[in-house]
Amino acid sequence: MTPCQESKHKDSIFVIHDETANLKVLLTILTEHGYAVHHANEGELRLQLQFVKHTLPDLVLVDVRMPGMDGYQVCASLKNDPLTRAIPVIFISSIDHSINQAKALLSGAVDYIAEPFDAEEVLWRVETHISLHRIRENLKSAVRKRTAQPVTTNEELEGALQEIRVLTQVTGRKHAEEKIREQEAELRQVLDLAPQHIVVLGPEGSHLYSNQAALNYYGLTLEQWRSYDARTLFHPDDCERMTSGGQIKVLGESPHDTEARLLRKDGKYRWFLIRRNPLRDGQGNITHWYIAATDVEDRKRADEERERLLANERAAFAETVAAQQRFRDLVNSVEGIVWEADVPSFQFLFISKQAERVLGYPVERWLSEPTFWKDHVHHDDREWALQFCQTATTEKRDHEFEYRVIAADGSVVWLRNLVTVVVEGDRVTRVRGLMVDLTNRKQAEEALRQAQLDLAHVNRVTTMGELTASLAHEVNQPIAATVTDANTCLRWLARDRPDVEEAREAASRVVKDATRAAEIISRIRLLFKKGAPQRELFEVNEAIREMIVLLRSEATRYSISVRTDLAPDLPRVMGDRVQLQQVLMNLMINGIDAMKEVNGTRELAIKSQRAENEQLLVSVSDTGVGLPQQAAQIFNAFFTTKAHGTGMGLRISRSIVESYGGRLWAGDNSPRGASFCFTLPAKVEEHE
Ligand SMILES: Nc1ncnc2c1ncn2[C@@H]1O[C@H](COP(=O)(O)OP(=O)(O)OP(=O)(O)O)[C@@H](O)[C@H]1O
Ligand SMILES: [Mg+2]
Fold first, then answer.
1. Exposed/middle/buried for 120, CB within 10 Å: 0-12, 13-18, 19+?
2. Label partner for 574 (CA 20 to 30 A): which of 243, 322, 643, 650?
3. Helix, strand, coil: what percent of the chain each, to 5?
């Protein structure tokens, strides 16, 4: 209830003001509260003053500035006129400057209300000033009436004025308390709507007020809450920190935040962010604590979850780093050189430590020099190796090859490179692979090859040694013929009439036989000779014939006939002729050996022919004892059924044939004996 509602008077108010929305409300309120309101918003100053003089209102409300008029002038004019001087003037304006307020008071106004205004307050001020005006008028007339009497008037007057001041204060305080009560009620409503817990404590922590959200959470009424032991509100682990003597602890003097778990009515604890704020009076003493608690359980859960995910992620990252390190260690411990290179430059992007160990160049050089690989490939391999790699990479084919590299100490290192071509989308992005050091294997292979050559030579020499008698016989024959022919020649010449013609013929035979002997010796020498294998084109049939010549005596010695069936116009073969003759010799001697003891026909048949796939087929067949029971083992080293055999003949022969790219195998001969066949590729010659 406001003071205005109490008084049902007909006090009049003159308002000189532009009609704003705010003012309209005010006019309505003034009218509703029983004031007779006159309103003017235009016209000259003189006209306005006349209105006031005419109506003599109990109060004038005037705007500071209006179109064509100044509120201060209005006020000053009213105050200058004895008729209107006493009428209280209140300024009402949207200009809230203290300078304007001062000007207003100087011009004689009693009050200054700044817009936007509180209608209640305006009513209260209006009524106060009207009351003061009335009291003042009453006092004045009382004073006037008593002017003839000796008075203590000043004291009385002072007393009256004091009364007025008290009245003003009381009215103001009453109004203010009313306002506070209303605001408190309003505030409570707002607080009850808030989702946070809002609590008001006394300066020492006594429970004064809790909003509905908090009460609902605990399942308590306000009364219960006020007398509740705060320790039961908190989680046991937070209790000591948050409470003191059964009340919520208020720490220090400044606002502070903390987090704690509060017990919900269903028995579950939830995390809250608790913010404590002190409220101080004019002397700075704390009068209340305001506490707001916000449920952060979900955020906390989310934080924990995020922390957990982060921890997982960190662990995964650490694991990845460790795995990478393990992988790097593994790569560096691999016997081969692991590498990755860019295309088409073939510059290395990665190379494992093994590269340093194998070739002696530091890893940094491999990576920093754009043409490192090309520069260090052996010059004999450089062109083809590069070409081979480029072609395979362009065709997106994984590939492997063996080549030589010059090491830092100048030695030659054999490498086997296994290359994977990395294709992303449709594009070759890089190549990677493994280089394995083959130097030891290559050296071993070379040593083996040499050992085989040596062995083959020993085999040849041994076999030839066994044939010494036959070979001597074979050489002897033309030499004996030479001697005979030379004697004949001499005889023809020694006649009384030397027959020159006969002598010439005999001399020609000498030359022929001597040449034949020389040829045989040269062949024998070749077979004895030790040297690196040659690559030459030769006629297989010719090699066969020569070998027959050398072995003819041996065959004859054992009554063995030698038959040949050699296909004409055979393509020539590329390779070492002496090696091939060694094969023929081994097979023919084995055939002769097999027939030495047999009765019946002893025939060694040698046949040459074309076979499929550009191959030549040569067979050596005998009518001997046939293959032994362990026929499957005859090609094994050291397998022999002979008293003085080494068991190496067939083994060496097979490796020679295979080194040509051919095959050697054995079978039975019909009706008896054994047959050995071998093929040789003849393609090489046809391409030349
Ligand atoms: N034509 C053949 N007929 C029957 N058996 C044969 C024939 N050729 C080889 N063999 C059997 O194969 C074995 C191995 O022959 P190989 O030529 O390797 O050794 P070797 O002749 O016994 O001894 P080497 O040739 O070193 O003097 C022979 O001992 C023999 O048993
Ligand atoms: Mg043999």
1. middle
2. 650
3. 50, 25, 25
Residues that place a CB less than 5 A from ion ligand 2: 590, 649
| Cis peptide upstream of residue 195 (ω within 30 degrees of 0) | no
3-class DSSP state of 454 = helix
Q: Which atom of ligand 1 is nearest to the CA of 635?
A: 18
In short, whether 666's Cβ falls inside 6 Å of ligand 1 is no
User: Residue 594 phi/psi, 5° resolution?
Assistant: -70, -20
The CA 398 to ligand 2 mean position distance, Å, reads: 46
Split the chain (688 residues) into runs of 10 and give each run's mean pLDDT: 44 81 80 85 72 87 77 84 88 75 80 79 83 76 59 56 61 63 74 84 86 92 90 90 83 75 94 86 80 90 91 92 86 86 92 92 94 94 94 95 95 94 93 92 86 81 78 83 92 90 92 88 80 84 91 90 94 88 93 93 96 92 95 93 90 90 93 95 54
Q: State if residue 294 touches ligand 1 by the CB under 6 angstroms criterion.
A: no
Show the tokens assigned to 52.
């006031």
Measured from the CB, is residue 585 less than 6 Å from ligand 1? no
- Ligand 1 midpoint to CA 616 (Å): 24
Q: Does residue 641 have its Cβ closer than 6 Å to ligand 1?
A: yes
